[in-house]
Amino acid sequence: MHVFRVAILVLSTLFGACTIFAQSGGGQVDFTTILKSTESQLEDSRDQVISSTATWVRFWEELYPDAETRPSLPEVDFTQRMVIVVAMGEEPTGNFDIRVTKLVRIKGVSKGLPLLKVLIEETRPKPSCFPLPSATQPIHVIETDRVFDVTFRRILKTDRCGG
After folding, report:
1. FRET label pair with 63: which of 14, 18, 111, 155, CA 20 to 30 Å apart?
2. Is residue 104 within 8 Å of 116, Cβ to Cβ?
3. Contact 138, 37 (CB under 8 A)
4. Which residue from 85, 2, 12 is spatially nearest to 44, judged by alpha carbons?
5. pLDDT higher than threshold 60 for residue 22
6. What's the alpha-carbon Rg for the chain, to the nearest Å?
7. pLDDT band at 82 (very low <50, low <70, confident <90, very high)
8. 78 with 52: CB under 8 angstroms?
9. What is the DSSP letter of 58?
């Protein structure tokens, strides 16, 4: 009987923790891809949150330095939304990639503010792969609901020679 009570207590505690997590805004967050490419022209690796139109314009101009071939700037309502950029920087060959796999909203540590965890997958070719002849600059740019704070977590995946 004692084991049964302990089991119920443990389950109640776990269920309570799940309920608190759900009430605190935990769970997966939807996002929309604005740009996914291996040719971004960004030479530096970055994890960036853009939360204003001015920063968005500067980033777009950096991404497309040639004004004549620059695509029009996608509209973003920064009062409700934000843009997240993940980029690998310049890689010497092909078969490199980066992508946001999931956004998870969790209760923040600082002052109880909501926190968004951005899960990122980097794909790199195995060292034994024949290198593709051109340099790449993988990037993934997404749009999502605006939150107070963002943290990034990169996971490395070694690919089978681009397969």
Report:
1. 155
2. yes
3. yes
4. 85
5. no
6. 20
7. very high
8. yes
9. H
Task: Tell me the Ramachandran region of residue 15: left when phi exceeds 0, alpha when psi lies from -120 to 50, beta otherwise.
Answer: alpha
The confidence score (pLDDT) of residue 106 equals 82
Q: Which structure tokens are listed for 86?
A: 């993940």
Amino acid at 137: Q
The per-residue pLDDT for 33 is: 98
- The pLDDT of residue 162: 59
Residue 104: Cβ within 10 Å count: 15
Q: What are phi and psi of 82, to 5 degrees?
A: -145, 165
Check residue 95 and report its DSSP letter: S
Distances (CA, A) of 25 to 4, 55, 104: 32, 28, 9
Measured CA to CA in angstroms, residue 112 lies from 14, 24, 28, 51 at distances of 20, 9, 18, 21
Q: Do residues 86 and 46 touch, judged by C-beta distance below 8 A?
A: yes
The whole-model pTM stands at 0.78
- Rounded to whole angstroms, how far apart are CA atoms 87 and 48? 9
d(CA 34, CA 140): 8
* pLDDT of the residue at 109: 58
Residue 23 tokens read as 């009430």
Contact, 140 vs 100, CB < 8 A?
Answer: yes
Token code pair at residue 109: 């540590």
Residue range 12-23: mean pLDDT, rounded: 36
